[in-house]
Design goal:
single chain; about 550 residues; alpha+beta; six-stranded antiparallel beta sheet; 22 helices; 12 strands; about 55% helix; globular
C-alpha cells in the first residue's frame, strides 16, 4: 500500500509526510453511502427525543438512585465540613468527586456528559472541570475478550487474520470506545478504535430517560437556564448518536483533512483512516504520536515555538468554521499531540461541527462584527444562528443588554454590583428567549479550550498583537472572498482595537496585554467575589441556625 517518496494523497488532505498507506485512488467501500448514513443517523434523534407520558423504564429509577446517593453523601460530609471550616472549595470538590463516580457507574452516556462538562473551563466551577477531566481517558476499560468479539464480528475475520500484534491493554478508554495499539499483518503500525459492546442500546435508553426528565428541570437549575435542559439533551443526542457510527467519524477525518489541504494549513495533521478496515464499531487508522498538549517543557527542549502551535490551531479552526462550514467540535488536551516538527496531530473526530450556508455566513459575520466592534452585526449573526428568536428586535435587545453604554473595567467594579450586572444580563437574555444552539456550543467550547491553552503554551504573548496578526492573515488571504460572502470588505475596515480593549474591559492606556496579565485580572475578580461571599456568610454563621417555627 505504501510507495517510495511522499504519498500522492497529500493533495487530498493534510496527512503525515510518510503514511502507512496512500488514500489517493483508494476504493474506501465504507464511504460509498456515507451521506445517506449521515441523514439516517440525524433522523434517529427526533425518535429518541419523542415525549413520553410515562417514565421510560427503570433507568430513571437507577439514575435517580445513583445521583441521589452522591448528593446525600455530599450533604452529610463535605458540605458540613466546608461550613465548619469556612472553605467552600471543599464542598465543591467533594460534590464534584461524588458526581464523577456516579457518572462512571451510570455508564457511557453519563460519562460522555461528564466529558462535555470537563471542556467547560470558564463556564463551570474549576473543581468540577478538573474532576470530570478524569472521565476523558481514565474510564474503566472493557475486558479484552469483549474487544476481540467486537473486532472479529465487524471485520468478519479472526483477529490474527488482520493483525500480527494487538495490545490487550488500551492506550485510552473513553465513554463510547477504547483505543488499542496494533500492527497489521502487512506491517503497518496502527491504532484501533473499538466501540464498547451494547453501548448503542444503553445510550438510546439513557437519552429517552433524559428527554423525559429534562422538561421537569426548566427553571429549576440556574446554571442550565440559558441553555435550557431540553436543548442540552437535544445537543447531547445529536452528538452522541453520530459518535456511535465510526464510518461517519472516518468521513469527518477526510473532510477536515481536505479543508486543511485546501487552505494550505499543513501545521495540523490528520491521521489517515484505513481504506478498508472501517465499520460501524471498528476504526483502524494511522498511528500518530508526539508531545502531550501540556508537555510545554518537552516542546521547548525540542525547539518548538509553542505560541506558534496555538496560533496555527486557532487559525485552522476559524478557517474551517467560517470558510468551509466544518470544524473539529471537541478540542481538548487528550485529542492533541504536538509532533517534533511542531505540527499538531489532531485526533478523535466523533464530534464535528457542520454548518449549512446560512449559519456559516452568520459565523463569518459574527467574527467580522467582533473585529469591527459592530455590535448590531454580531447580534444579527447570533439571531441567524438561532441564539435568539428570528423576530427579535435587535435595537431593543442591544439597548436592554447595555451595549449602547461605555464598557466598564470589571476589576474596578464592586463585587455586589458585578453580581447584580450578571444576574440582570441573564434575566434579560432569558426574557428574549435566548438559548445556545448546538453549533454555537461546540464553537464556544473550542474557543474556551484555545483560551485555556494560551495559559500554558503562550502566557507571555501580547494578545493585542495576536489579534492584529490573525486579522491581517485573514484580510490578506481571504479579503476578497469575505467581501463576496457577506458584503463587508475587511481590506477597507481595519481592526477596531478600541473595541477589542472595550470587550476585555481595559482602557485606551493599556497598550499591551499578555495572557498572564489577563489571568491576573480574572483571578483578582474571582478573589474579590469570593471575599464578598465570605463576608456575606459570616453574619449568618454568627447568628447560628434559624429558630424553629412557632407551634
Amino acid at each position: 500500500m505504501t510507495s517510495p517518496g511522499p504519498p500522492s494523497d497529500l493533495s487530498l488532505g493534510a496527512f503525515s509526510d510518510h503514511g502507512p498507506w496512500d488514500l489517493s485512488g483508494a476504493d474506501m467501500p465504507w464511504r460509498s453511502d456515507v451521506e445517506a448514513l449521515r441523514a439516517k443517523t440525524a433522523a434517529e434523534v427526533p425518535r429518541l427525543l419523542r415525549r413520553r407520558l410515562l417514565p421510560p423504564g427503570n433507568r430513571v429509577v437507577v439514575t435517580s438512585g445513583r445521583l441521589g446517593w452522591a448528593i446525600l453523601g455530599w450533604r452529610l460530609f463535605e458540605r458540613r465540613q466546608a461550613a465548619r471550616l469556612g472553605r467552600r472549595e471543599i464542598s465543591r470538590a467533594g460534590l464534584s468527586q461524588r458526581l464523577r463516580r456516579a457518572f462512571e457507574r451510570l455508564g457511557p452516556t453519563y460519562i460522555k456528559l461528564g466529558q462535555i462538562l470537563s471542556s467547560g473551563e470558564g463556564l463551570f466551577p474549576p473543581e468540577l472541570v478538573s474532576e470530570f477531566r478524569r472521565l476523558r481517558d481514565r474510564v474503566p476499560a472493557e475486558p479484552f475478550e469483549l474487544v476481540r468479539q467486537v473486532v472479529e464480528a465487524d471485520l468478519g475475520r479472526p483477529l490474527e487474520a488482520v493483525f500480527s500484534y494487538f495490545a490487550t491493554e488500551p492506550i485510552a478508554a473513553a465513554s463510547i470506545a477504547q483505543v488499542h495499539a496494533a500492527r497489521l499483518c502487512s506491517g503497518e503500525e496502527v491504532v484501533v478504535k473499538v466501540q464498547r459492546p451494547q453501548v448503542a442500546t444503553l445510550v438510546a435508553t439513557d437519552i429517552a430517560a433524559m428527554s423525559w426528565l429534562a422538561p421537569l428541570l426548566i427553571g429549576r437549575i440556574p446554571v442550565a437556564s440559558l441553555a435550557n435542559p431540553p436543548a442540552l439533551v437535544e445537543l447531547f443526542a445529536e452528538t452522541v448518536v453520530e459518535e456511535l457510527d465510526f464510518r461517519l467519524e472516518a468521513d469527518n477525518m477526510l473532510d477536515i483533512a481536505r479543508v486543511l489541504a485546501e487552505t494550505s494549513q499543513r501545521s495540523v495533521v490528520v491521521p489517515r483512516p484505513h481504506p478498508e478496515l472501517v465499520t460501524r464499531r471498528v476504526l483502524v487508522m494511522e498511528r500518530l504520536d508526539g508531545f502531550g498538549w501540556d508537555d510545554v517543557e518537552g516542546m521547548h527542549r525540542a525547539g518548538i515555538d509553542t505560541s506558534a502551535v496555538v496560533r496555527a490551531l486557532l487559525i485552522a479552526f476559524l478557517e474551517g468554521a467560517t470558510l468551509y462550514g466544518v470544524f473539529h467540535g471537541d478540542l481538548h488536551g487528550g485529542n492533541l499531540f504536538v509532533q517534533r516538527d511542531g505540527r499538531v496531530a489532531l485526533l478523535d473526530y466523533g464530534i464535528t461541527g457542520r454548518l449549512d450556508e446560512v449559519r456559516r455566513l452568520a459565523f463569518l459575520r459574527l467574527l467580522m462584527g467582533g473585529t469591527l466592534n459592530d455590535q448590531r452585526l454580531q447580534l444579527a449573526a447570533l439571531r441567524d444562528m438561532g441564539a435568539v428568536p428570528p423576530d427579535t428586535d435587535l435595537d431593543a435587545l442591544a439597548k436592554d443588554l447595555g451595549l449602547d453604554k461605555p464598557a466598564v473595567d470589571p476589576t474596578t467594579m464592586d463585587p455586589e454590583a458585578l453580581l447584580s450586572e450578571v444576574r440582570d444580563l441573564t434575566k434579560r437574555l432569558l426574557e428574549y428567549g435566548a438559548r445556545f444552539p448546538k453549533i454555537l456550543m461546540l464553537f464556544v467550547k473550542d474557543l474556551l479550550f484555545v483560551d485555556g491553552s494560551l495559559a500554558t503554551l503562550a502566557p507571555d504573548v501580547d494578545l493585542f498583537a495576536e489579534v492584529t496578526e490573525i486579522a491581517a492573515y485573514f484580510t490578506t488571504r481571504y479579503g476578497a472572498r469575505i467581501a463576496h460572502d457577506i458584503g463587508i470588505d475587511p481590506r477597507q475596515h481595519p481592526v477596531d482595537m478600541a473595541g477589542v480593549r472595550a470587550a476585555i474591559g481595559v482602557g485606551e492606556d493599556v497598550e499591551q496585554l499578555t495572557y498572564r496579565d489577563l489571568q491576573a485580572r480574572r483571578e483578582l475578580i474571582s478573589r474579590r467575589m469570593e471575599e464578598h461571599r465570605r463576608r456575606a456568610e459570616r453574619p449568618r454563621r454568627r447568628r447560628g441556625p434559624a429558630p424553629p417555627p412557632a407551634p
